[in-house]
Amino acid sequence: MPRPSSMRRLDRKILEQVHALIDGGHTVDEIHTYLQGMGAFVSRSAVGRYKKTAEDMAQEIRQTRLLADTVVRSLENAPEEKTTRLNIELLEGAILMLQQNVGDKFDAKVADMLSRATKNLVQAKSMDAALTLRLREEGRKQAMEEVSQRIKAMGSAKDLKELTDEELERRIAELVQDGNGQ
């Protein structure tokens, strides 16, 4: 097993600064000079490899975010079961990518962690959907009760029969206006 990169053995605060330099677009030579000034003596090639790896990872993260953004926008109004199925398929894809990237050294713990995360996500979405349905039903019942009370406030059926068409229209209009918060 190869030993860890000399860059990865640096103090965390120095590594954070190195990442800031990489993000700022500094060259390998500039980062190497910075590290020498901090008393961290690592080879220029180690800095170059580390910078390349960090940039590659950043690019993969940007691509993943772009893909996720695209998927989220395309599924904005999709039924819940489609988004759940998509999450499962994304997990399968991630597991396959892990297997390809690490070959025989596939880490079952990582796959298990991804599976659990997906399971938790699906459960959370199911709970959210159930809550949304319950709130809609409660709102519908409340609206029906409110309409029923307003109709009763208009008067009895006998009273309403005695109204002219214009008077009935006015009362219904008042009922609708009261229902719109006016």
From TrEMBL:
Domain of life the protein comes from? Bacteria
List, alphabetically, the InterPro entries matched: Phage_Mu_Gp27
Q: Name one Pfam family in it.
A: Phage_Mu_Gp27
What protein name applies here? Answer: DUF3486 family protein
Q: To which species is this protein native?
A: Desulfovibrio psychrotolerans
Q: What is the lineage of its organism?
A: Bacteria, Pseudomonadati, Thermodesulfobacteriota, Desulfovibrionia, Desulfovibrionales
